[in-house]
Amino acid sequence: MIKLVKNRGEVMHEQFLILGSSFIIAIIIVIVILHFVKKAEMKYYRNKVKNLEIQRNMVASTPVLVELSKIEPIIKNDKMEEKYNKWQDRFTDIKERRLTIIDDMLIDLDIYVEKRDYKNCGYRIASAEIEIYKVREAAEHLLDEIKDITLSEEKYRAIVTKLKTKYRTLNREFQEHRELYDFMQDAVELQLENIEKRFLDFEKVMESNEYNEVVQICKALDAMIDHMEIVINELPDVLLMANKVIPNRMNEVNQLHKEMTSEGYVLDYLNIDYNIEESKKNIEKIIDKVKILNLENSMFDLKTMLEYYDSLFVDFEKERLSRKVYEDSVGDFQKRLEKTNSLVKDVYNQLDDIKNMYDLDDGDVQIIDEVNRTLIMINDDYKKMKSKEENKSTPYSVLHEEIESLSDRLITMEEDFDSALKSLGNMYDDEVRAREQLQEIQGFLKICKDKMRHYKLPIVTDQYYVQLDEAREAIVEVEKELDKKPIVIKTLNTRVDTARDLVLKLYSTTMDMIKTAQLAERAIVYVNRYRNKYEEVDKALQDAEKAFYKGKYKEALDISIKSISVVDDNIYRKLVSIYEK
What we know:
The protein is an all-alpha fold. It has helices at residues 2-60, 64-71, 78-114, 118-150, 152-176, 185-207, 211-262, 272-291, 298-349, 351-357, 362-391, 396-455, 462-483, 489-528, 535-549, 553-564, 571-580. Helix 7 runs parallel beside helix 9 and helix 8 (272-291) packs antiparallel against helix 9.
């Protein structure tokens, strides 16, 4: 027992040793990590400060002094000397004051980094970055201003060289085609001389290093040459259009306008006289602007005028074509209108008689009334149109459109009228057809009665007389419908169909009865030759004769055929053949 307790104490001691060791190791690891974190943080801020120092040195190394040294030999006037002195002062301020401030800020940053005062480091680094940025911008702006002078001779001479090339091309174009510029030759030449003078002015200011004037001269030369390029290229066309093309076109339009007016064309809507006068005024204004070499919108205005006069020829041709089409159309329309007037008048005048003759519905009557009203309006509009033509108050292009509109309206009206006439025509056709079919039905009825009288059957069945009475009654009903005023076509057609069906049924019954009776009679005669030879034939023949005289013709035929079939099995076919012959 004592030994066991001792062992437990040893185990607990060992566990405490392990825990203590682990705790010490953890503390060491944390210390090492903190050491590396602080080392990395210090490295980060030192790199930041180092980067700021590099940026500061780049600003300090801006080649302002080199460019200023280039200015000294070309100082030939007070303005240039004044600028040079100001640039010197600005560079001195940057180098001796503003860069010194940045140096102090960088020294303070080094101290704060060594003290590990990172909280203040962040703010001071941002302040230093802003100050370096401002100084760098000031130095670069100063350098650009100085370079504008040091590089201006090379830059502006290159610009002027291009302008001279462009000027020589324009001058050569003018000299080779002087005659195209008409009375504007002297003005163009004077402007070209002004450009040459500006080139001389450029050389003078370059010699005296007055670079402010150089800029203005280059801008003026560029504007003057651009303007002369427009003048050289467009002026001949402007003069040609203003002095020849458009005046000639106006004369052609005016002459054609007079000719067509004398031929009866109405062209007042084109306002040609007024527009010609306005065009002349506009051309005078354009010429006045051209005299001072102002071509702004001149070509556009002249092209617009030319397009207008070209469009007038299209209008003239349209009027000629419209007149031809109108004159061709109006004659055809008048004939068609007169024919339609006569037809509608006849139908409308007979409308009361038609109403009395046929049971018209409201729709049929309404269509005819509407057609008549529409036709009256078309006639009125046609008279108005003819009045315009006679008064010569309307262009043929408008008359052409009106006659086309009237034609379309007349066609639509004729279609409606044809629809109404078709309805009336169908009623009349139905009546005529009913009368024709009545005659046919009566003919069939007569045939049935004649057949019966001709064959003089011993007995006529009741079925025949029933069907005969039905057919007669149906014919009477048709006759009554035809005698009614007005006729109800629908009822009439029903009556005719019924009468036709009943008569055809009677005809079928009559022909079947006669055929069966004839076959039975012939069969009895044929069977009679075998009466003495066969006892059963004699008995069957007696039954057949009794049935025949009772009017049971089919029964008599069946008995006869069965009785003789033992002797001649083709008896029925022979009888039919004899009947057909």
